[in-house]
Amino acid sequence: MTTAPAEQAAGRRLCWIYPDRGTERMRTKEWTHVWGIYKEVAREHGWAMSLHKPEEVSVDTTGTGAPRVFLDGAEVTPRDTVFVTSLWSLAHHTTDVCNQLYLYTILEAAGFFLPIPPRLSFLANDKTATMLHLADSPLPHVPTVRIGAGRDSPALTYEAALDGLSYPLIVKPAYWGMGQGVCLVHSAEELKGVVGLAAGAETVLVCQPYLGEGINDFRVYVIDGKPHTVLRRIPQGTSLTANLSSGGGMEHVPLPPELADTVDYVASRMPMPYIAVDFLHDGERFWLSEVEPDGAVGFPGSPQAAREQRQIIAARFDAYRAAHREFLRGGPHTSDRPDQGEKSAR
Questions:
Q1: Rounded to the nearest 5°, which phi and psi values hold at 123?
Q2: Whether the Cβ atoms of residue 28 and residue 22 lie closer than 8 Å to each other
Q3: Rounded average pLDDT over 88-98
Q4: Which of 4, 282, 304, 327 would give a disulfide with 113, using CB separation of 3.0 to 4.6 Å?
């Protein structure tokens, strides 16, 4: 099928909103394993990719027509620019969260195609929100209790919510990532200490049952609603997480048949061109763990791993382009389609 010239010109800029507060060491690591490779693959597939802090976006609503949006001083439009708007909420991003929430909502209202719609980004970012949204999953989600941590934490008001769980517990921040802040607690006293530390930053925690040592993590990269690649991530030694950033190992495996229905279900409830769906396997059964709309594709190691990494990234960027073209054909309000997809899945 021949693509019209207007569509060929559309979507040439792929702009990641990323509140970069990393150190020089972290920036070098991220560029080597993720951003630099993303940018190369993007260029090969017709995108001009760039990273931008939220404060680089300005919006002019003084006119009578559509708002004017400026990126680093240059005007951009829904036809020529796609924004990737994943919510970043690690500890060092605390001051950026409010700006991201409003900016992403404004960009969607201004008619831009966002491959990670704000509502779904917000749902995926908090582990309890994800589980509630995916309550009818064919596979069970990891039992989760969400507790607040703040100035009243010494009163232990959270204990009543933990009646359904028994120690030991995995305790981690509700909206961080990359394996950061994951703790194993064996008693109420140990939990009190962890909550006390979290209270220093009023960080909400989730508590989950400890499934045992050496739990394997299966990440399914889903593109256009279909499983593309499955990565089995293996924790290093007694590590509590299997994240590659934490030193975990990896191997590519076929999609375990037990995961197929749940992957389809998640894709229908969170319809985006690209997502990563994570499962845990305790040696006997699979558990749905979390969904990452911007799950990083950074594979260290062999030339074969590098080729597979680029294949996933390329498929992701091609899916973004196809979805953007469909968005332009459907008009400025097709960003509402995720809700329509959710209704049809119920």
A1: -65, -40
A2: no
A3: 77
A4: 327
Residues in CB range of 70: below 8 A, 6 or more apart: 57, 58, 59, 60, 76
Residue 158 — φ and ψ, nearest 5°?
Answer: -80, -15
- CB count in 10 Å sphere of residue 153: 19
**147-161 pLDDT, tens digit each:** 888 777 777 788 888
Other C-beta atoms within 10 Å of 294: how many?
23
- pLDDT of 4 reads 39
Give me the phi and psi of 141, to 5 degrees please. -85, 160
Dihedral Cα 92, 30, 225, 102, nearest 10 deg: 30
User: What is the per-residue pLDDT for 148?
Assistant: 84
Residues constituting the chain: 346
In angstroms, the CA 58 to CA 69 distance is 6
Of 139, 81, 130, nearest in space to 276 by CA: 130
More confident residue, 279 or 23: 279
Each residue of 282-340: pLDDT tens digit? 889 999 999 999 998 877 667 888 889 999 999 999 999 999 999 999 844 444 444 44
Report the sign of the C-alpha dihedral through residues 83, 89, 90, 91, in that order: positive
φ/ψ (deg, to 5) at 139: -95, 145
CB count in 10 Å sphere of residue 64? 5
Q: Is the dihedral of CA 104, 76, 336, 50 positive or negative?
A: negative
95 exposed, middle or buried (CB, 10 Å; 0-12, 13-18, 19+)?
exposed
Other residues' Cβ atoms within 10 Å of the Cβ of residue 50: 16
CA distance 7 to 80: 10
- 171: β partners: 183, 207
DSSP-assigned letter for residue 258: G
CA 36 – CA 33 distance, rounded (Å): 7
Listed in sequence order, the DSSP H helices in the chain are 5-9, 24-30, 36-44, 97-109, 118-125, 127-133, 188-199, 260-269, 303-330, 337-345
Question: In the predicted model, what is the mean pLDDT of residues 151-174?
Answer: 86
What DSSP character marks residue 141?
B
pTM listed for this prediction: 0.86
